[in-house]
Amino acid sequence: MILLPDEAITEAELDSTNAPIGSKRRANQKGFGRFLRILGPGIVTGAADDDPSGVAAYSQAGAQFGMGTLWMMLVSYPLMTAVQEACMRIGAVTGKGLAAVLRDRYPRWLLLPVVFLVVAANTFNIGSDIGAMAAATELLVPLPFPLLAMAFAVLMILLEVFVSYKTYVKILKWLALALFSYFITAFMVHADWMAALKATVVPHFEDTPEYLYIFVAILGTTISPYLFFWQTSEVVEDEIAAHRLAQRGGVPRLSKPYLKRLRLDNAFGMLFSNVTAWFIILVGAVVLHSHGITTINSAADAAKALEPLVSGFPHAGYLSKLIFSLGIIGIGLLSVPVLAGSSSYAISEAFNWNEGLFRKFKAARAFYIIIIVSTLAGLLMNFIGLDPIKALVLTAVFNGMAAVPLIFLVALLASSRKVMGEYRSGFWSRTGLWLAWLMMAAAAVALLLSFLPH
Predict the structure, then answer these.
(1) What pTM was computed for the model?
(2) How far apart are CA 374 and CA 336, in angstroms?
(3) CA-to-CA distance for 344 and 230, rounded, in angstroms?
């Protein structure tokens, strides 16, 4: 193993925790408490994946096609896990973000279009998420949409720029709990669990533009480009926090137990993401589709999916809107900073600027300015007449298209002996990566062809 000059912590200590193994507080952490400490970049990435765009896409899928898309969650889990594990491993082995690795490996004419594609997709996603948060809040308080959108943008900028990284990660983990309202609702509506199980294991496909649109949206909001850059860079931040990598960079100090922890974190985070998506689709199918609601046109329509959660209570309609809004706001507060951070990592690494949430503002001005600009650019999208809810599903489709070339590059990097050495992708990793690329490429091409005149 490679020892960094500023490190004085033993390998055994680093494999189990971020602090010396003799620490009484760490030694007393067992069972569930120790499991919670394992969770890091993976669980944050998984939770951020079910952003307002994801909630809208999954809800629309359930409303429009009933249980007909539940099987996609069973298929997407191993593919998403393979892609994010490869990104995690690239960051852990190289000690660099994805754009930095691409910069070192490929010419600028290839790097810059990739970065532009990610930043464009992220900006559109930020805009639609902020719009959804404002529209959801409008259900509760009589304030104008523009004011709410601006307030959320400013709040998230302040959180990401001025709150310390360790504190911010803790906030992100707890905000993920907002998604559990869909789990509870699913058990309250007396769903046909046998039918749901059958729909999960038996694929259903319709050769229509509408189904292909939702198909690509689900893939795009599940296997999203911004997550590739975010997780790669967050693993580097994790290594710095664990003293495996100096802040100035270098070769990370790796071990099999550490990589095992990262893989467990990744697998659990992706499982959380896909199971949550499965429940959102199921609730949409049972509550909306079965009652003839097949199109979600507004935040109020989407909130109807949670009405069974509060049936029997006074003002049930308002309570369902409250729960829906809190979920959208909570997960939006998590995902928009992830999106803006992903763009900033990509641009900063492409131009070799100082980057990282572990740095103070004055040490990485360009990095934080990009976060601010990305958030404000997304905010401005809400003033050009886009419908907030429909923009969410369109964003998911855009992500599905943008992911295709990026997965191709991730697969090449993760399998490269020159880049990854002994940690390059094995058979199962390569299989998962190329299957993910093949499915998303085929879906994107099929959707584009469906719009051509026959």
Answers:
(1) 0.83
(2) 10
(3) 10
Task: Quick: pLDDT tens for 359-404.
Answer: 888 888 999 999 999 999 999 988 887 777 788 888 889 999 999 9
Q: Which two tokens stand for residue 112?
A: 């810059």
Q: How many CA atoms are closer than 13 Å to the CA of 123, on its beta-carbon side? A: 18
Q: How many CB atoms lie within 10 A of CB 227?
A: 29
* Domain-embedded: residue 359: yes
User: Residues with Cβ < 8 Å from 115, sequence gap 6 or more?
Assistant: 99, 346, 347, 350
HSE toward the beta carbon, residue 79, CA cutoff 13 A: 21
**Torsion angles phi and psi, residue 400, rounded to 5:** -60, -35
Q: Which amino acid is at 309?
A: L
φ, ψ at 191 (rounded to 5°): -65, 155
Residue 10 lies in a domain: no
**Residue 258, domain CATH:** 1.20.1740.10
Q: pLDDT of 406-450, one tens digit each?
A: 999 999 999 999 999 999 999 999 999 999 999 999 999 999 998
Give the whole-angstrom CA distance, residue 152 versus residue 32.
Answer: 34
Cα angle: 109, vertex 234, 131; to 5 degrees? 80
Do residues 414 and 89 lie in contact, with contact meaning Cβ atoms separated by under 8 Å?
Answer: yes
Say whether pLDDT at 290 is over 80: yes
In a domain, 12, yes or no: no
Q: What is the mean pLDDT of residues 293-308?
A: 81
The residue count for the chain: 454
CA distances 344 to 115, 160, 255, 371, Å, are: 10, 12, 29, 6
For residue 20, tell me if it sits in a domain. Answer: no
Question: How many domains does the chain contain in total?
Answer: 1
Closest by Cα among 131, 136, 139 to 318? 139
Q: Are 21 and 150 in contact (CB under 8 A)?
A: no
